[in-house]
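Holo prediction — N-carbamoyl-L-aspartate.
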Amino acid sequence: MKLASDPALAPATDVIGAGVGPDDENVAPAGRWPHRHLLDVDVLSLDDLELVMRTTDTMVEVLARPIPKVPALRGWGVTNLFYEASTRTRVSFEVAAKNLSADVVNVTASASSVTKGESLIDTVRTLEALGARVIVIRHATSGAPYLAAEHFGGSVLNAGDGAHAHPTQALLDLYTMRAHLPGGAVAGRKVVILGDVLHSRVARSNLWSLTAAGAHVWVCGPATLLRGFDAWSAAGVGGSRRFTVTSDLEAALRDADVVMALRIQRERMQSGLLPSLREYAARFGLTRERLALARPEALVMHPGPMNEGVEIAPDVAAGSQSLITDQVANGVAVRMAILYLLAGARA
Ligand code: NCD
């Protein structure tokens, strides 16, 4: 597929009225993309990951244009169905879909018929009857997007389900690392995921994609927030890929190439896992002094939302090594790429 020459990615002004969109035969479909849904990164092959990265490059180029809008998804109904609070992920999906000229509808579960007892299955069927061809879903229950996919005729995109998966976050993290690591590859790099790993769908999806890409991943935090991860590493991610689990912060940070801090997810936490946020900050917070253990040019990341002064010090979050705003910006490009690939696979 010659992505850059796809007429559906030409500036919108060039093709308005030209009838170009994924349904038109003159548009090269995203040929090698075999997936109808994106529920997690665990189904993505290395070729799939490469295709997402290359498609994201094209979307970054689209975003740099004076009018960052292309007609690739014109006429496509994309519904954001969010059962959980979100700022960046929801807005990012909305901006991404609008940049592709999709017809975007936002449903916030707390203001929908869900509050009247409507089931997820009924909601999904209703949205399909109302024209949705892609549903982007965030849900507090692990597995909810899989149930939605069973009852929806279009594509389901998981925007985070419980503590299970957050595939587009892992993809934007991979893209951001590759864009900033010397040599542009994560293979052989030491990547530390630090904090509330237990409750983190971001950590789980990143463990899949980063180990697949050959990174040496370390997860670090209080032992209570690492429960079960030893067993997963022993079993091997995908049956064979190991990672390191430790509460030894100094060992984790030493010579790290990337440090990704995670929010303490109080809303998912049972009592007794953590004495207090103050103690967590004192023992595991990413401060400038601790970051000095990592490589001098180590990249600092955080999926957001941040609790500055808890898992990350404000001066580290805003420091010269921080890629936190790059992650947010790349999130739009990665989500445009995924929407484009899903639509192309079904066109
Ligand atoms: C994360 C999430 O919701 O999974 N944020 C995000 O999507 N960028 C992490 C979190 O809530 O801490």
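READOUT: Confidence is low (pLDDT under 50) at residues 14-30.
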